[in-house]
Amino acid sequence: MLGSLGLRKNKALGLGLAVAAGAGFALFVFLPVRAGNLATGAAGWTSQGCFEQGAVYPTTRFDKQISENDRRGVTLWGSHCGNDASTGELRSPAFPAPTILELFYAGYIGSKPGLQLFLEREDNHVRAAVPVARPAGEAWVKLRWWTAPEVRGAQVRLVAVDQDTGWGGWLGVSNPRRLTVMGFWREQAKTWARTMATYLFVLALFLLPGFVAASVLTARRPIPALYLVMVVIAASATLGYISFWAFFFSKGLGRVLSFSVYVAAIGLLAIPNAWNPRTAMKATFDAIREPFLYVTLAGLCYMSFYLIFRDPFSPGISYSSDRFFAELLPGDNIIPAIFAERIYMRQPVRPFCCGDWLSSDRPPLQTGIVLLERPVVSWFSYPELSYELLASALQCFWICGVWCVFTSLGIDRRRFRQVTGFLIFSGFLFYNSIYTWPKLLASAFILFVLSILFDVMKANRALTNFEAALAGICLGLTLMSHPGAAFSLAVLGILLWRARRLFTRRQAAVALLIIASFYVPWSCYQKFVDPPGNRLLKIHLAGVVPVDPRTAWEAIRDSYHNHTLGEIIGYKWSNIVFMGGPKFFDSYGLTDFQGGRIDNTATEDSRSLQRVFMANALGLVNVGWLAGLFLLAKWLRQRREVKLAIPYAGWLIAAALVNLVFWSVVTFGPNETQTAHSSYADILLLSIGLLGFVLTLPRVFFLLLLAWQLLNLFVVWVWSQPERMAQPITLEWPMLLSGVGLTVVLVWMTVHASRSA
Description:
The protein is α+β, with helices and mostly antiparallel strands and 757 residues long. 57% of the residues lie in helices and 9% in strands. It has 26 helices and 16 strands. Helix 7 crosses helix 8 and helix 8 (365-377) crosses helix 9. The radius of gyration is 28 Å and the shape is globular.
C-alpha cells in the first residue's frame, strides 16, 4: 500500500516537473524577442547622391514573416529616386559594433557588384562586408549576422553604396539593430520549434484524409496492414490530384474542396459512428504506425541537418540548390511550388519559368497536394518553408514503399528496421528527400504496385477487385508524380505476364480505366492548355534538347534515321557504362580531410559523384556485390543452400537490373543514364537486395558499414559548405542538436534490430 502510494507520488512529481519544464521552454521560446534599435531617425545620417528615407521601388513591402512589433522604431532608407539609374552613398552615425547585428534590406544587393553594404571602423576605416546571402527584390528582408572580429566592439558606421545604373540598380537598408546573444539563442530555439511543428502539421494534414479512408474501409472488413499503408497515401494523394483540377477551374471551388475534405475528415475522427468506429481507427493506427514513425523521424532528421546553416524562415525555396553544390542546379525542385502559386493566384501559366520550360512538362501531383493544403496552411505558416517541409515529407514515403516490399515478401520486420535505418543515412536519399522533385514520391507508388504483385504471386492466389483497383490508382499516381518512374515499368510488365492467370480481364480493364482517369485529363492539359508538353519525351527518347515543333514520335523516328546501326548500339552501350561512373567506389568521407579539416573541394566532388552516377548513388551498399560473390563461392564450395538474411534479395536485384537495361536501351544516349533521368525505385530495389547479402555476413560487417555510412552523411553532405555559400554562416544550434539527437534514436533502433535479428 505504502509502496503504491510512493509510486503515485513519484509519478505525480515527474509529471509536474515535465509540465514545468515544458512551460519554461515555451516561455523561453515564444515570448517576443526584439532587437534594440541603433541610430534611429534621420539625425546623424549623411548621404551623397540619391539616398533618402523610404526611397525604394513603390511595390516594396515587408516580408510576411516580419511582424508589426518587429518593425517598431525602424528607419528605412533607399537609393531608388524614381528610377534604377540613381546612385549614391549613405553613412550612418557611429555606434559600437555589437556581437550580433541585425537590419532589414531590400533591392538587388547580392547580385550586382555596384551595390555594396559594409561596416566601416571610425579609427582606421577597415571595412567588413555585410554578408548578404541573396537579393531581396521588392521586399524588406531581415538579415542577422555575427560581426567580423576586426570590427566587433569598435566604433563603426553602416555604409551603403549604390554605383549601379542598370536594371534593378537600387538597394534599401534600415538602421542597424543590436541583438543579445541570449535573444539570439531564443530566436534560434523559436524557429526550430516552429519548423518542427510545421513539418509535423503538414505531414499530419496530408495523412488525415487517407487515414480516415483507411479506417472506414477497415470498419467494413479486415484489410491487411500492407494495403492500409498504401490506402492512406494513395487516398490523400488522389485528393491532391483532384484538388489540382478544382483549383485550375476555380479558386473558390478549390478552397471549398480543401476545407470540405478536412472538415469531413476531422468530423469523422471526432464523432465515431458506424462508418468509422473507434475500433477501426485503433486497428488502422496499429497497422500503419511503424512505417510512418520512420517517415516522421527521418523527415525531422533531414530537415534539421538541411537547415543547420541558415534561419529556416529566410532561405527561400531555391536554398537546396545553394546548400549542396557550387554549380547552379536546375529548378526542378521548385517547379511544383511555382505551378501551385500560378494556379492559386490565378496567374497565367505562359510564360512559365526556368528558361523555356512549360508548365505541361512536369506532371501535377505534387502541385495538387500543395494546393490541397494551401488554404489551411497559409493561415499561419510561411509559404515557402511549408512547401519545402511538405514536399520533403512526400519524398520520405520511399520508406513506406520499402516497408510494403518487405511485408509483401513476408520478411522479418527486424530486417526492415536494419535496412531502413541504414538507407535513411544514405547521402543520395538524404539529398533527394531535400531537393524535392517528386522522384522519390513516384518510387513509393512503384514499390506499392510491385508489393501488390509480390503478395499475390507469393500466395499464388487470385487478385481481388480491391487490389486491382488499388494497383490502378497507384500506377496512375506514379505517372502523375514524375515521368522518370516509367522506366521501372519493364519488370512490372514481366510480372504481369507471369501472373496473368491470377487476374481477370475485367480486373485489368478496371485498372486501365483508373489509370486513364488520371492520365487523360493531364494529357488534355498538355495538348490544349500549354502545348506541346512532350519535351521530356524528346530529350530522353530522341536526344533532342532544344524546343522542337515535331511530335515525340517524329523526333524519335528522325533521330534513329539520322544515325547508323553501329552508332546507335554505341550509344546504348555508353548508357550502360555511364552508370558505373568514373569512380565505382568513391571516397565516401574517408579521404575528404586536408590538414585535419574537411576539404570542401573533395566533398564537392563526392557529392557530385553520388548525385549523378548510379553506382555512386548506391553508395556503400555496393559492398553487397562483394558479399554476394563471397556467398556464391561459399555455396559452390559447400554445395548447399545459403540462407539469405533477406529472402528474394537476388530476385529484387534482378528486377532492378532488368529495368536499368531497359532504361539504357530506351534512352537515346549517349551517356544519358545519370540518376536524374532514372526511376529511383530501381535504386531502392538494388539497395534492399545488396543489403540482403551484407546482412547474411556476420553482424560486425553491417555495423562497420553503418558507421561508414554515418561518416559519409556527416562529412560529405551535412557539414561541408560549397562555394555558393562562402559568406559567413550562422550555425543553427537547435537544428544541429535536433538532427544529432534524431540520428542517435534512429541508429539505436537500427542496432537494436541488428542485435535481435
